[in-house]
Description:
With 1037 residues, chain A is an alpha/beta fold. Chain A contains 34 helices and 39 strands. Chain B is 68% helix and 0% strand.
Amino acid sequence: MMNHTEEVKKGRANDEFIEGESEITGLQRREMLKLLGATAALAGAGVACRRPVEKILPYSKAPEEVIPGIPNYYATSMPTSFGAVGVVVESHEGRPTKIEGNPEHPASNGRASAHMQASILELYDPDRSRVPMKKQGAGRMPMTWGDWDAFAGPHFASLAADKGTGLAFLINQSVSPTAMRITTEVSKRFPNATWFAYDPLKIDSAGSGAVAVFGENARVRYAFEKAKVLLTVHADPLAMGADNLLHAKGFGEGRKIRSAKEASQMNRLYAVEAAYTITGANADHRLRIAASDGLDFLKVLAAELVQKQNAPWPSLLGGEEAKRKFVASLVTTKKFDARFVAALAKDLLKNQGQALVVVGDNQSEATQGLGHVLNVVLGGVGKTFGVSHVVLNASIAKGFAGLESLVKKMNAGEVKTLVMVDVNPVYSAPGALQFAQALSKVSTQIHVGLYEDETGLASSWHLPQTHFLESWGDGYAYDRTISISQPLIAPLYHSRSGIEILAQIGALSKSKGHDLVQETWRQPGGLLAADAVWRKTLHDGFVAQSAEPEKSVSAISLLELLPKMSVPSEVSPSKDSLEILFKNDYSVLDGRFANLGWLQEMPDPMTKLVWDNALLVGPKLARELGIKSCMVKRIYEADEVELTLNGQSVKTPTFVMPGLADYSVVAFLGYGRKAAGVIGTDVGVDMFPLLPKDGGRYAGGCKLKLTGKTIELATTQEQFAMNAEAVQEITTFSMQSRDPARETTVKQYQDDPGYTKKKGLPEDLFREEGDPKKLMPLQVTTPWTYDLNKWGKVIDLTACIGCNACVVACQAENNIPVVGRTQAMRGRVMHWIRVDRYFSGDVENPTAIQQPVACMHCENAPCEPVCPVAATTHDKEGLNVMTYNRCVGTRYCANNCPYKVRRFNYFDFSHSGNLYVDPENKARTRILEMQANPDVTVRYRGVMEKCTYCVQRIQEAKIAATRNHQDKNALPDGVVTPACAQSCPTEAIIFGNLNDEKSRVTMLKQVDRNYDLLNELNTRPRTSYLAKLTNPNPELV
Amino acid sequence: MVVKAAQMQPEMVGGIARGDMVFPEDLVKREELIRGPQDFHSITERVCQMAETPFLQTPRGWMIGFACASSIAAMFVCLIGYLIWEGIGIWGNSNPVFWAFDIINFVFWVGIGHAGTLISAILFLLRQKWRTSINRYSEAMTIFAVICAGIFPGIHVGRIWTIYWLFPVPNQMDMWPNFRSPLLWDLFAVGTYFTVSLVFWYVGLVPDIATLRDRAKNNIAKYAYGIAALGWRGSMRHWLHYERAYLLLAALATPLVLSVHSVVSFDFAVAQLPGWHTSIFPPYFVAGAIFSGFAMVQTLMLPARKWLGLKDIVTMKHIENMNKIILVTGTMVGYAYAMEFFIAWYSGNEYESFAFINRAFGPYAWAYWTMVTCNVITPQLFWFKKLRTSIAVSFVLSIFVNIGMWFERFVITVTSLNRDFLPSSWHYYQPTIFDGLFLLGSFGLFFTLFLLFIRYLPAIAMSEVKAVLPMANPHWGEKHDG
C-alpha cells in the first residue's frame, strides 16, 4: 500500500459528516417524535417506491487495512502489447474502482491512457466467461475446473509420453518473465512441441530497422523531450505503440511555452503521413504522402541532407567510401514538395543533436533503418534516442510469420492439440491465413481467455482466464524495468491465470500464480529473494533501476542496409489502384477492448465517430468516386463501398476525412467482432479478412466500388462531418471570428503577446490599463470575493494532443454511464469532458486543433439563475455545484449554458432506479456497479449532471488536512487533482487554487496567451485556455 | 329569465340604444349584430337545444367526433403514463436541443388561450358588443387550451414526481424555489391566468346555467345545473352584483392577457442564447398569441356555427372582425420577424447574426419559411373584403395560421438551440414518433373538452346576446316621427 496516499485518505473516518452537511444535535423528545411521525407519513406517501431496499452486512471480523469509506491504493502493473505499465489502483473495501498511472514507474510517470483507464471495466465485464466450457456435439457445455483437471491430466500425460509430438502452443507475445520461464519449463516436458506467439498490435516489421542498423537484439527508444525538431514518417508515436505515454510527455515538455520569450525554445514537429493521426494533428507542418512512399521520401530527404546540404558524416557510419555508397543508394524517381524537403533538411541540420526522425512500425525494414541512419547523421545517438539490447526468448516463432507457419502445420495435420493462451486468432488472424479452417483440423483446441470469444467458441475447451487485477504476474516494461502484477481482488469468476494453466500443462511443481511468480524472482540468490526487497517491489509495483541500460553505439552495419534500400520504388497509388492502410483503432485497438462501452463510446480523436469504424476516404477521392458520405440531419449517412484487396472483399461504410493522402484509404481494425459480448458484438466492420498475411499495415492495389447502400453512423460532432456545401456554409457564416480554440504562431506571439487574449472581445468591454485582475469585462454587480479556496483550471491547448485519456478518466472517476449508439445519434452522450476537434484551412489538407471542454465553473454562471428549484448554485469556493437530489429536470440550465457541457439523463442510463429493470440488465448492472466510485453519486433518470471539478477529491483533501491539523483552506498546490488532469499525459490540464499566488494554475492564468472561452458573454469562467501555439518553419510560411 | 334581460340597465347593455341616441338610425345605419327573426325566446331555444337533447338522441356527428377525440385523449393519458415510466428520452430532445416539442406545444397552447380572455375582457371593456356572440366559445377554448398547455411543462421535467418543488410550499428543507428563474414566473403567470380565466368564464356562465336549470327535464340535469347555477334567481340584485363582478374580473383579466405571454416569452428572452435573448419578445409574443388565438377561434367556430345552427348569432360581421384582427396581428408578427433580423444585423453581434441567418438559410429553413408563409404572407389576403368574408377562405387561413404559429415556436426553440455558440456542440434535432403523438394527444384532449362543452353547456352567452337584440333596447318599438 502506498503510504502517502493512505495518510491523505484516512481523515474521512473521523468525519462521518462531510463538511457542510447538517448535523442533528441535541434532539429533544418532542422533536424526535415529530420527526418519527413525519418520517412514517412520508414513507406511507409513496416515497417508498423509489429505491429497492438493499441490506448491508457489517464485517463480523474487520479485515486489516480496510477502513470503510477510505480507499486503499495498490501499485501493480498492467500488461500491454508493448510491455508492462505501472499503475496504481484505487480500491474501495476490496473493490478496485479506478486505475491511475504509477508516478514512479518509468513507463507511466503517473499518467494513464484511455485504455489503461478502461481496463478496470474489463475486470467487471459481465460478459467475461465464468466457467470452463466444453464443446459437446454442436453445443457447448459449462464444465467445472474438476472436469478440466480430469481431462487435462491424462490428455497431456499421453502427449508427454510422445514428447509432445502434435502439441502446439500459441500464446500472446508476452513480455512476462515468468511466462517465458514457464514456456521453457513446459518445453522440457514436451520437447517436440512447437511454440508460437503473436499479437495483432505488433507488426513483424516493428523494430526491424533498429536491428538492421544497430545489430542483433537492438531496440531504440526515443527521448522526445530532448528533441527540438521532430520528423515522423507514417508514425503515430504520441498516441499509439511503445512508450506512447512517454513520447507524449516528452513532446509536451517541448510545448510548455509560458511567455513570448520562451517561445523560441518551442519544439517543431513535421509529420509526413498518409492517414491523419493524432501526431499529425499536432504537427506544425504536415505533408501528405502515400504510405508506400515512405522509403522514397526518406531517400530524398537523406540526399538533401547529406548531398546538398553537406551534413557532417559521422565516423560511426564509416568513412567516405560508406558515404559514397550511401549516397548512391538514395536514387529514386519519386518527387516530393522540394521546398518542404529543403526547409525540413535545413531545420534538422540546424538542430544537430536535437533532431529526431521517427519512422512508423508499418514501414519496411529499410525505411526504418534509413530513419535510424538519419538520426545518427543528425547526431542524435545518446541524445534524442538511445539503443539498448534486449534478448528475447528465441525458441518461440513470433508474429504473423509464426502464425503463418502454425497454420501450415495445422493444415498439414501436424497439430493434434493446440493450446491458445490470451489470443483470439480466429478473429484477428489475417483473413488469407484461413485460421478457423485450419483450426478445425486440430482435434483438441484449448483456448484460455477472458472471454469465450470467436476462438473460444471454435475450441473444444475454453478456459476462463483471470484479469490482470485478479492474478499474480510480472512483466518487463518497454525499457525492461521489472514490474510485478499483484491481485487486487479474488477472481470474480471461476478462472485461472494463463501461467497457472501453462504450469498445469507442464506439470510443474508449483501451480499457483503467486508461487510461480515467486519462483521466478525469489530463488536463492534471485534478484528479489530478500523479503524486504520483495515487499518493497510489491509496494512500488516495480523494481527500481532495473531498466536495460542504454549501450553506446560503436558500429553500424550501414553497408548491410544499403542493398535493402535499393528496392525499386513502389507504384504510386491511383484512383483505380488505391493504397489501404490498416490501423489499430484508437478506441478498441485490435478488438480486444471491443466489449468495453467506455471505449466504444469514446469518440475517435479525428473523425469523432463512436460505436463504429468506417473506411476513411479523402475528399478528393470521394469526389472522384462519387462517395457522398456526410452528416444528414443528426446522423452520419455513410455510403457503403465494396472494398477489394487481393481478391478478398469487405463491405464497409465510408467517412470522408480531410487530410488524407489523395489515394490512400484508412481502415480501422478491431470492429466487426462476432463474439465479443453484449456490447461489442457486431459493432462495425471486420477488416482483418483483408489484412495481408504478414500483418503488414498497408497494401496497394485496393479497389472501391459503391454498393448504393447507405449506413447510419453516430458521430459526436456534426460540424465538419458535412458535405462540401455545408462546409462552405459553416466557414462563411460562423467560424469567421468565432474561433473558440484560439491559435497563434510563435512569430505572431512574439510580435504581439496579447493577441490571442484580446481577440474576440469588444473594445468597450476591455480595460487595458491598471490592475491585470481588472482586465475583464465590466461587471455591474459587486463581484463576490472568494476568500477561502478559489478553484480554477487552465487547459493548455498547445500541450493537448487530443488522446481522450481525460474523457475516459472522468468517466471512470465520476460514474458516467454509457448510452449506446442510438442514443449517441440523438446527441445524448454523457461525457462530462469532451474533446472538440476543429479543422481549419484547406479542405483537402486542413490543420486540426483539439480542445477539451468541460464545465467552466463560471463565476457568472448562466445556468444558475434559470433553475426554478435552485438545484445548481455556487459554493463559497466558486464551484458551480449541482445538487442532483434537488434537480427536477427542467433542462433550462443546459439551454442557457453557452458551452453546452451539461448532460441530461434522458433515460435511466445508470440502471440505478427504475422500478423495473429487466433481469438480464439487472444482473449485468449488479456486476458493473462494483466499479462505481462510492464517493460520487450515481445519477438517476431525469437529472442534469456535469463536471464538478472532482469535488469529491477536493472534499477528501480538505478532510485529510483538517484531520492533520492543517488549514483546509490553504491546501498545498497539487494536493487536489481532478481525474482529467491526473491522467493527462502531457500535463495540459492544470488545476489548483487561484488564491494561492504560487500555485501553478495562478501562474498559468498570468500567461499572456491565457483566454476565457466566450469571454464576451461575461460568464467569467474559472477554466481558461492557453491559446494554441504553433511553430511553423518561417521558411515554409 | 327572458324578461329579466330586458330589464337590464340601459347604460350597461344598451349599446345600440345609446348608439342610436348619438347617431340617429337614418344617419348611420349600424349593422345589427344578430341576424334574422330572433327574439329572446328563440335565442334561448337555439342555444339550449344542444344541451337539452336527450342522451340517446345525441347527434351522430357529435358522437363520432367525441369518439375520435376521446380516444386520442385516452391515448394521451396512456402516453403520459409511458413517459413517466420510461423517461423523457422517448422524445427526440437531445443535447443541445434540450427543449423541443414539449415547450413548443406549451407555448403554442398558451398562445391559443389568449383569444378567449382578450375577447371576453378587453373587448368587453372597450364596449365591443359584437363579442357577445363568440365570447363564451372563446373563453372555453382558452380554458381548455391552458389545460393542454399546463400539461406540457408538467410532464416535460425529468422527475415529474418532484414537480411540486416548483411551488413555494414550506418544507423541511427550508428551501424556497428560485424566484429568479423565469420558469417560476411562468408558473405563476400561467397559474394566475388559468385561475382568473376560469373564474371569469364561470361567472359569465351562471345566468345561462340557471336558464338550463329552469328548463331541465330530468333529475340529473336539474341537480347538476342546479348546483352549478349557484342559486341564481335573476333578481335585480343578482344582476347588479353579476355585472359588477364581471366588470371587475374583466379589468383583472385584461392585464393578464398582456402579462402571460410576456412572461412566457421571458423563458426565452431572459436566457442568453442568440435567437432567444431579444427584448422584442414580450410584445411579439403577445401579438402572436392573439393572432393564434383568433385563428383557433375561427377554426373552431366556423364548423360549429354551421352544425349548431348558430348562423344568425355568429354572423359574417363577427367573422370579418376576427379576420381583421388576424390581419393586424399577423402583420405585427411579420414586423417582429423583420425587426429581429434588422437588430441581428444592426447589433453587430456575430452570434446573433448567425442565429438568424441560420434560421432562414440553415438546416431548418423549411420550418422558417413555413412559418413566414403561414403567418405573414397568407393573412395578407384578408386585405380583400371578398376573401375575409368568405367562410371557406377564413377557415383555410385560420388553419394556416395555426400551423404557422406552431412553427414559430418551433423555429424559436429549436433553431436557436441546435446551433449556438460553440460549433462543436451543434446537433440537428429530429422528433420521434412520440413527439408527434403527444402533440396529437393534446389536440385530442382539447377537442374532448370542447365537445363536452358544446354538448352540455350553453356555447353562446345567451343573456349577453339577448342584451344586444334590438328588442333589448328600452325604446324598441317606439316611433320617432319627428
